[in-house]
Amino acid sequence: MKPDFQRDLIPRDDALHLIGTLNAMKDKLHDAAQQWELLDENGHVPATPSYTALLQHATDAQDLSRDVLHLTADFARSPHHTTRAGSTVLKHLGTAATMSSHAAPHFTEAAECALALPRSANPTDRRYLANRMVIDHASARAFLRRTSESLRDAAKELDDHLGFQRFLVTLTRQKGQPAPPSPRPGGRHR
User: Fold this and answer.
1) Rounded to 5°, angle at Cα 29 from 67 and 159
2) Is the pTM above the cut of 0.85?
3) What value, to the nearest 5°, has the Cα angle with vertex 113 and ends 68 and 59?
4) Mean pLDDT of all residues in 4-28
5) pLDDT tens for residues 100-110?
6) Nearest 5°: CA angle at 109, between 60 and 23?
């Protein structure tokens, strides 16, 4: 490989380690988005939604967001972010960091609505609070899903980068091999 190509490559072990980290984090966020439900099995708002459970969703989302932010900052500090693949990975990580940071406030707002719901005597206010709670909770889960998708895209970019590296290794091996011997003249009679 030419030195110009080598500067633009992320070392295989580093890429594999990051892919593993991204996939683990992606799965945590995807699972959270799937498991942290507000509505009951019939799709209805519970009569008394749990403020504590919704606040726990916010706390856990904040922890997940912190992990995404740390991963993004670590990658941004690495020399790998300057490569072509690395800049694309950093773009996906930046999107993931932004999306994840929006989830916790929406879970917190859903919890705030859950806390106010039993205190509201007016049916219109109760309906408004219940609808707002559902929308905030669904928005928070959507932010978790979008974070997971961005992490998936970053891992795919690294996987494609490793495929490119394998191609380059194959290409350089082919160039380094001697050419097959040409047929000898004189083996045919005229």
Assistant:
1) 80
2) no
3) 25
4) 82
5) 999 999 999 99
6) 30
